[in-house]
Design brief:
Helix content of chain A: under 10%
Distance between the termini of chain A: 41 Å
Largest sheet of chain B: 7 strands, mixed
Number of strands of chain B: 11
Oligomer: heterodimer
Order of helices and strands of chain A: EEEEEEEEEEEE
Shape of chain A: globular
Order of helices and strands of chain B: EEEEEEEEEEE
Distance between the termini of chain B: 37 Å
Helix content of chain B: under 10%
Shape of chain B: globular
Largest interface: A-B, 24 and 32 residues
Chain lengths: ~120, ~120
């Protein structure tokens, strides 16, 4: 079955430390891939997206993600975390086949806590 | 410019009552999406409109849920005979035409529905 998996429900890192949030997908064809961030009281905000081409994509707020076809993964990274990065992060996909109208399928999210 | 707005921000109702949730998309966006986010979960697709018509309503959980977008702008999600399981945050997003590869969906802050 088609799915998006975020294995880590909660992650805690110290401010200034590096961060990697995992995302795996299971689709017949590589879907379009996204990372969103949701802060308390805020709407979902797109951090970055991957359609094709260079497998390392840069996003806003200093985030980047790497697409690895062999591992069906699209992990989000940041070299140095700031306290303001504390939020919930969602990996999401849009299938590239089936005419789905670009409806997003989200993972269950990873809650990031930043220790000062 | 103005983003996606949703009203009310919070709605508390009693089991069995009828509720309407409103979404004002970004001006000029022809595609409009509704998602539902239950506690501890990622958003789940409900329905999307391209213009005035519902292009895909496959995510509506049952016939108690209905959505309209009569003039191709504002949309209303309607829930009849509410149940406690309907309690969630209802998110609206809009984008330019829903074609691939992808037009970014911009999310509103959501309406938190609580059914007592």
């Amino acid at each position: 079955a088609q799915s998006v998996t975020q294995p880590d429900i909660h992650i805690t890192v110290s401010e200034g430390a590096s961060l990697e949030l995992r995302c795996n997908y299971s689709y017949g064809a590589t879907p379009y891939l996204f990372w969103y961030v949701q802060s308390p009281g805020q709407g979902l905000q797109l951090l970055l997206k991957y359609f094709s081409g260079d497998t390392l994509v840069q996003g806003i707020k200093g985030f980047e993600a790497e697409f690895k076809r062999s591992q069906s993964s699209f992990n989000l990274r940041k070299p140095s975390v700031h306290w303001s990065d504390a939020a919930e992060y969602f990996c999401a996909v849009v299938p590239t086949r089936g005419g789905g109208g670009n409806k997003l399928t989200f993972g269950t999210g990873t809650q990031l806590k930043v220790e000062l | 410019g103005a983003g996606v707005s949703q009203t009310p921000s919070n709605k508390v109702t009693e089991k069995g009552k009828y509720v309407e949730l409103r979404c004002d998309p970004i001006s000029g966006h022809t595609a409009l999406y509704w998602y539902r986010q239950s506690l501890g979960q990622g958003p789940e697709f409900l329905i999307y409109f391209q213009g005035t018509g519902a292009a895909d309503d496959s995510g509506l959980p049952n016939d108690r849920f209905f959505a309209v977008r009569p003039e191709g702008s504002v949309s209303t999600l309607k829930i009849q005979r509410t149940e406690r399981g309907d309690s969630a945050v209802y998110l609206c997003a809009s984008s330019l035409e829903a074609v691939q590869p992808y037009n970014e969906q911009f999310f509103g802050p959501g309406t938190r529905l609580t059914v007592l």
